[in-house]
Records
---
Amino acid sequence: MAKPKSLFYCTECGNETIKWQGKCPSCGSWNTIVEQPAVEKKRPAAGPVSRLGRRKPKPFAEVEAVDELRFDTGMNELDRVLGGGAVKGSLVLVGGAPGIGKSTLMLQICDNLCRFSSVLYVSGEESERQIKLRAQRLGIRDDGLYLLAETNLDDIVAAVQAQNPDILIVDSIQTIYNEDSNSSPGSVAQVKECTMALMHLAKDMGVTVFVVGHINKEGSLAGPKVLEHMVDCVLHFEGEEHNSYRILRAAKNRFGATNEIGVFEMMDKGLVEVPNPSEAMLSGRPENMPGSCVTCVMEGVRPVLAEVQALLSPSAYGSPRRSSNGFDQNRAMMMLAVLEKRGGLMLSNCDFYVNVIGGLTLDEPAADLSLVVALASSFRDKPVPYDLAAIGEVGLTGELRSVNAMNQRLSEVQRLGFTKCLIPARNSGKIVVPMGLDLVRVSNIREAIAVLV
């Protein structure tokens, strides 16, 4: 009897190999290779085969190109991240850590969606009773909302075809399985097949599908990397364990920009939108404390103020410690070297800690100047003026470079009550100075340190 064929998959990246290995040759993870039965593909019959209903190529001029049909989800922050609302017939993947609020977010949007459409909520982790109790606690209306506790893919597809809902929510994709496959639920093969079936439902029937996905220990979506290529939108729901604020950002969006964020706050009655994230991020900011500086970054078309904190202390060991939270580690090390070489501050024997308040991740160069100012303030133990913000990119020679959307940033800085703003001396474009805001123009980090501390 022939031995059944098997393949080996990496649970981190989805790479396939013909034999087991301790280390994945693709992503380098250890002990992530698992064995799965190979799916045998049926060979087509010999000779020409003609199938009824086979699609034929269309001339480019005959293809109808109309704007996609969008609808509001009831949450402005989610609509902003999606690019102006959800698109009919799209497949959206929402990923996040356990307990971050993915299921709560999906259940809360049902409150508005049920007003003009029918919603089928499929859960493989909770029973109908558990979902209803949570919905009652959140104040979700029950008109037009249908619940189904099922993990079998065929039963879910049959229920969708019989119910014909406008929106389908699946929580979560790792619990759904296809009984035609011998793989266990949550495996690479099962996740690929189940997502492919849901994609066909979305495209063929015009159903808008929201799929909840888990993340692995590395912080990326669990399952094969091809999963992110199959869906239309990939949303990451992020937040710290001891922080009530949650940030929703788009890693992929075929219908809009990927640099927008939505800010929520987890309360007793569920997630509450934060329409003014700058004010929320700066709440509780200490006065007259060294090592803190405020900057303004652009999240899509929205300017957001963020507080950058730095701490320098003499190291008790031979190699000082370097730690960064919310700021790119390599760029923070570069700012430290520039400050020591061009700014004249001896920081090589100091422990270095950087933190961005509110769970934000600053990845644009406009936050460089605020980090340099915070480091200098901590080193000299002199506080930065409470009503001052810093915006600018720092080069390796210590010069300050201009950044884009300066007028929008300055308007947000002035709106939040700041009276001074440190900016590069040279800026591209005409700057409109808001009333009540004084601009301090500097050309390098030495001038910035001299002005402030």
---
Amino acid sequence: MKRFLWLLTVLGMTAALLLAACVPVVEEGPEKVEILFWDQFPDVSDQMDALVARFNDSQDRVEVVRESYTTAAMRDVIRTALSSGTGPDLFYYDLGPGFAGVLAQAGLLMPLDEAYTEQGWDHIYPWTLARSTFDGHVYGIANELEFIGVFYNMRLFEEHGWSIPNSWEELVAMCAPIQEAGLIPLAFTNGSSWPSYHMFSIVMNNKVGRDRLTRMISGIDSWDHPDTVDAIQKFFVDMPAAGCFMDDFNAVSYDDGLALFQTGKAAMLPSGTWLVEALTNPDYTTEPIGFFFLPSIDGNPVVVPGGIGSGWVVSSATEHPDAVLEFLDYLIGDEMGTSWVTEINAVPAYPVDTANLDLPALLVLALDIIGSQAESMGYNIDVVVPAGFNQVQWDGFSAIFEGVKTPEEVAAELQAAMDEAIAAGEVVNLTE
């Protein structure tokens, strides 16, 4: 009986082996390489998901996993995430020395010099490279070019007979009649502190001009100067005194101020073209919006502060640099230009043919101005100065609003921060 059972067992095993040999082996293809991508487009998240999905569906080698952050949230977490090894392979970040420059100096970013040549990225505007070059290496690819000015509610202006101001004095004089009409003159709010950076930029460019501001940013000319004091005085002291802002503006968030303008409760909003999407999307804005540059100060020429909003940067710790570069090549390809303009309402860092596109008037204006004036624009100061300088802006302008510091004190602190940055080798010389 045992021999019979043994024989059955052997026959069963033999049959199983023969049967297995007859079954064809299905070989699975290689798994996709997964890369983590962080961006700052939460307001157009569905559109960005679609862009990423198109890439993922187009090939079988790379799978991009997208996560979206607000600008403030990204700044709060990115350095810790990169240092701990839990951060993204590719992310969207401010390219200036106070932001991407800090990460580059800490060894957290991958240089892209060779990639520019090998990938043939010569369609990117050449002037943008200087804004993301630190210690002789390029660390970023610009995107979302922008400039700063004043948005205004065209319906309110027409109904009340208000005209676009031609001088700083005219702008300030408008605040009283707008207030009397039960409206907020300018929906400037500073609860998150960074909006004051842009207001300093918008006034300083017109006050001192592009050439001198270039020397100041490069550490050649002094910030501790009567012209700096006057620029600070004009926006941070004189405008609040003239009733140009809402009550408690220094404690109100940027988004809340934007919402007041979007819904017709404020006549003007000083800000940048990164708001084009929010101000042309009928889901957010119910009013017709126009735009004008900050008018002349002291009869000086109008200088538009502009440059790079943010750009693509790569973690030095990425385990898949080739896959990241493949996705990057997709994001900045010529064929993607139309998608950035029509789906994201952002201005890429290379020419886009818009002749046959149906675009909002504000976006067409932004594209035209950047295409024709980008190289001659002034500076959005916070993206081209070191982190210590920005910290003085962050603390100092709020302190002026609160009556704790004077313009003279903040101008002196700005120069002290610049001196420290020069000594530490953190200043980018824009005159070279």
